[in-house]
Amino acid sequence: MPSPACAALVGEPIANLRQVLDAHGARLTTATVQGDGWRTQHDAIKWQLVQDAREMQFRLRPEVYGLFAASIPQAGRRTLDGMSMRKRQGLVPDFLVHAPFDGPERPLLFELKTVHYGSSTYGNQEARCHAVKCRANALPAEYAAKAREVDQRYCGTERGAVGPVQARLRTLEPVRGLVFGAWGEGSPALHKLLTVMAQCGAQCHWRGMRCEDPGNAIGTLAWLLRRRWGLTALRENARLKLERLQYVGRGAAAASQRRDLGSEAHAARQRAAACALVSGPRARARMR
Predict the structure, then answer these.
(1) How confident is the model over 149-162, as pLDDT tens digits?
(2) C-alpha dihedral over 227, 233, 238, 240, to 10 degrees?
(3) Are the beta carbons of 139 and 175 closer than 8 angstroms?
(4) Alpha carbon distance 61, 134 (integer Å)
(5) Per residue in 61-95, pLDDT tens?
(6) Can you tell me the distance from the alpha carbon of 91 to that of 67, in angstroms, rounded to the nearest whole number?
(7) Domain locations in the chain as residue ranges
(8) How far apart are alpha carbons 49 and 44 in whole angstroms?
(9) Measured distance CA(286)–CA(288) in Å, rounded
């Protein structure tokens, strides 16, 4: 069942929807509903960046498992054994990049986030890219807080002290935010990463592009990456909104229940057919 946060979107008469939804349905992207739409949107953008990094021969590692797990002692690891893979790792950044980003080449952490249109994110700000910049600026403090929590919960670190996970995080500099907004705009770190990736790709592809030197290829590759990333962000935001239309209107909750029951019944029939196929004709005869 949908959560109370989106109750106004579900089961309301059609005449009252104008009092709940905005003119363009942007609230559908911010409402907390069942499903995994936010993660699906996030992962589609993430794997687009990974695909482009491989094309540009840029050193980028996604889903950095194990980066902080070695800092957690064995007693804390035993506590984490019963949890999911992501929680067992302590902290799992989206990307680990080796690049000359604001200095010499070194390992850097990047976290991918999306910002949806709403009063708490965009408000009445008129500055360009203000929402994504604010979200990116908040990420270093959020990651530091996560590291302190892991240290206190699983490493026995006292409040106010620096634990092993937080110390490991400090060796990698503050986490930089790659934030995409509701209109396809990006945070400052995203633009810098795009430039560095284009420079790396120019060194590899300038001859195949029939350019005179790598410098002439940077602009073309930067335009290509900016177009891909912006369109991917816009497309996935539109898909999120369209997929959530099923929760709007009269009878949406009942329709959602019918879909769930139909999916469970279909899965049960598939399991029964698979068992009958493995067991052979005798099992099918007994089933009749």
Answers:
(1) 989 988 888 988 99
(2) 160
(3) yes
(4) 25
(5) 998 888 888 888 888 777 777 776 656 555 788 99
(6) 8
(7) 4-250, 260-288
(8) 9
(9) 5
